[in-house]
Design a protein that fits this description.
Shape: globular
Distance between the termini: 34 Å
Mean pLDDT: 93
Number of strands: 6
Number of helices: 8
Order of helices and strands: HHEHEHEHHEEHEH
Bound molecules: iron/sulfur cluster
Helix content: 25-40%
Structural class: alpha/beta
Length: 226
């Protein structure tokens, strides 16, 4: 368990995502964890950055299903996913929860080590939406669909307006987007200003207003979550 397919220089969880704090588990052990979560009353099982262990998750899922596992599954990732892999997952995951981090390839290279991130994420999000559609929320709980997260970076390094416009125009006008304001410098962020500071209130406001202007659904900028 652990690791990530990106290498963000501001990662808050770098001990886990960069591998120092991860450990191997067998498919049966993972299946038992899933069953224990179900028995404990969990509403869903959320796999965080599972891209590099998809075959092992499927193996565990088959074992868990044989023992009565029925909870919805959440695919929670950095957004850097191959379309071919996502196609294999059609019908397996109920909720896709990807980030869309950057619009500019140069920034993606500099901050996460992956130049083609924007292009790959654009294709991935379209494929996710094709599979599960807009987010459906019932009684305050996400049931099925696509929930995109976008972390506002200082100095607009993420290219927020372009990302939100893409989601509204090319993915779906009903896309649910969580525009997140909690960025704080971590790991090597201090070496790369303006990542060494939090986004200003004005930068956050601008990002929220862009989401509102496009009528995108979301927890803060538009209360229509259903
Ligand atoms: S995608 Fe998230 S978990 Fe992975 S390195 Fe980047 S910030 Fe860390």
């Amino acid at each position: 368990l652990g690791r990530c397919n990106l290498r963000c220089i501001y990662c808050q969880n770098y001990e886990i995502s960069h591998g120092q704090d991860s450990r191997p588990v067998k498919a049966r052990e993972l299946a038992m964890v899933m069953l224990a979560l179900q028995a404990g009353g969990a509403h869903n099982v959320n796999f965080v950055t599972p891209t590099h262990v998809v075959p092992q998750i499927i193996e565990a899922l088959v074992l868990a299903a044989q023992e009565g596992f029925r909870l919805p599954l959440v695919y929670n990732s950095g957004g850097y996913e191959k379309q071919e892999t996502l196609r294999i997952l059609e019908g397996v995951f109920d909720i896709y929860m990807p980030d869309f981090k950057y619009w500019d390839p140069g920034i993606a290279q500099e901050l996460s080590g992956i130049r083609d991130y924007p292009e790959v994420a654009r294709r991935a999000l379209k494929e996710m939406h094709r599979q599960v559609g807009d987010l459906e929320v019932k009684e305050g709980l996400a049931k099925r669909g696509l929930l995109v997260r976008h972390l506002v970076l200082p100095g607009n390094l993420g290219g927020t307006a372009s990302i939100l416009e893409y989601l509204a125009r090319e993915v779906s006008p009903g896309t649910f987007v969580n525009v997140m304001d909690q960025y704080r410098p971590a790991y090597r962020a201090k070496e790369r200003p303006p990542l060494d500071r939090r986004p200003s209130p004005g930068e956050i406001r601008e990002a929220m207003e862009a989401a509102k202007r496009l009528s995108l659904r979301g927890p803060d900028h538009n209360s229509a979550t259903g």
